Amino acid sequence: MAVIFYLSSKSDPLPALTAVVWDKALHFVEFAGLAVLLVRAFLGEGTSPGRAFLAAVMVASLYAASDETHQIWVAGRDPALLDWLAGSLGALAGAGLCVVAARRFAGRR
Question: How many angstroms separate the CA atoms of 59 and 41, rounded?
C-alpha cells in the first residue's frame, strides 16, 4: 500500500513503463498484487478462504478508491473512475487466483 501511495504521489511515476504499458493494465496488476498479499495475510490469521477473498477484494477496492481520491491533490494527476474499476477488477482476479491456489495447495500438505 505504501508503494502504491508513493507512486500515486508522483506526477509521472515510472515514465519509461507508462509510455509503453496501458495505465489500466498497470492499475489491474498493482491491485491484483495487493489483493494476493491481503488474501495471504487473512488466511494466515485463520480466516476462511471465502471470507479472505471478500475481505481482500473490499480492502483493495476501497484502497483503489482512496488512491484515486489522493490524486486530486497531486499536480499533473486526476482521479479516474476507470482507473478505480481497473484496480477493483485486478483485486477480484488476484484474490480469486490466490484463494484457488491456496485451496489447491492446502490439499497437498
Answer: 12
Asked if the structure places residue 1 within a domain, the reply is no
Pick the more confident residue, 106 or 26.
26
HEC string of the chain?
CHHHHHHHCCCCCCHHHHCCCCHHHHHHHHHHHHHHHHHHHHHHCCCCHHHHHHHHHHHHHHHHHHHHHHHHHCCCCCCCHHHHHHHHHHHHHHHHHHHHHHHHHHCCC
Print the domain residue range for 77: 32-109
Q: How far apart are CA 68 and CA 1, in angstroms?
A: 13
- Residue identified by cell 491481503 is 38
Q: Report the predicted TM-score, pTM, of the whole model to 2 decimal places.
A: 0.91
